[in-house]
Amino acid sequence: MRLSLNQATVKRASVPEVVEVCVRNGIPAVGLWRDPVAEYGLERTASLVASAGLEVSSLCRGGFFTGLDQRLDDNRRAIDETAALGAQCLVLVPGGVPDRDLVAARARVASALEVLAPYAASAGVRLALEPMHPMFCADRGVVSTLGQALELASPYPDSVVGVVVDALHVWWDPALAVDVKRAGSRIHSYQVCDWVTPLPADVLLGRGLPGDGHIDLVGLTSLVTDAGYTGYVEVEVFNEEVWARPFDAVAADLVARHATGWEPVVDGGHDRLPVTP
Amino acid sequence: MRLSLNQATVKRASVPEVVEVCVRNGIPAVGLWRDPVAEYGLERTASLVASAGLEVSSLCRGGFFTGLDQRLDDNRRAIDETAALGAQCLVLVPGGVPDRDLVAARARVASALEVLAPYAASAGVRLALEPMHPMFCADRGVVSTLGQALELASPYPDSVVGVVVDALHVWWDPALAVDVKRAGSRIHSYQVCDWVTPLPADVLLGRGLPGDGHIDLVGLTSLVTDAGYTGYVEVEVFNEEVWARPFDAVAADLVARHATGWEPVVDGGHDRLPVTP
Fold this sequence. Notes:
homodimer
């Protein structure tokens, strides 16, 4: 499974910088975010990435369907941008619970897909609904399990609505093995990072480099491969310490870890795993 | 459903203080913790609680089965203490993942129950396995859903091994309604608090008073009642701000909220609910 570098892992890199980092370190694909792409220019980004010989494994992100405004116009623009970049999918972050009605919030995700799936199909874009760790249910993502995401995707063809398997979001799920297998060709994106303890003050930034935490990434990669996924493994890490490192050092570290099945090459990686009290 | 005050909600109260607070505020039951009980004395606590006319809705806690030491001796002592107090159940916190092998950690929970269930049955003690929010899977509780807890309990009689339904841990679960119904007479404890955003730096202390957050506690209480549960609703809140308040103020606030279906009587409770961005 080939490596992709999600731009958020080197958050402070501009589009040209992340493209250069990928090329210099032999990483064949990149995951892009809409804001930096808009800053550099959509068409310019598409040309630059293509001339560098990179694939765009994902564009982050559409979604946030659960407020009073379902953001359908913005999501149509995100679909257009995904098409313009030739990205392999558009990642959809569902949105949280604006009040106390979780059932209604989840229903708004379903109703947004009814509108957006035909639009994406016309544009030749694959939507990748991201089940999110339950700790984000209130403020970010009401789709909490892979099984739930698959149910929401089920009315649509695999090639139009699929899912993201992000290790951080799904690793704890008792139904993981069954649901990854069931996901099959609906897996539009496979993202990795690691669960580190203790969580930092801002849990959004509580992601370690793959190999530094508790997730059995070798096992998860096997599940995803056995399910028929042939795309990239995209590293998406939100972590202040990683952001403070030189971009090339991060990329080289990831290339080395990827080659060893995510064994950390930095001292102390495994040693940092705490023993249960 | 009658109210119980979990001692952790007024963390700095000693056993006699929490008993007095319950009596003064007309709260008929208390949830106790082993450390403060040991400090005051097990027999003394049992006498004090009985002479005050309080029931003990739960004793916290046994568990932490997933390390190399499954702590079976300590759990046997916890069962004895539960019997001595006449507590309605012993809460079991499963323990986390000491390495990367989540499947093995979960299996150690099952094997600990094999040893402890007969011991608890002999002592006339009900064990209440606590499914824990997936954000605690790595360091505290590998049983992540009510469904999974029910599966672990299934080899044993309802009266010996059951579950805790703690709002904070289960509210996000897409299978919640189905699994609470299925739990039926295995519900040995029902605990409430609320999910507040943003989470504080230490997520363990990220619990609001019931009514201050995103959980539909009225809906959850209906589910639990419809499942046949006739025990107490126990308020367990870990929150520095709540701990800083006078014990009686906290108790009075809870009694008032309980009477109104957990509507906050403090200004700004509902207003603090953020709108999804």
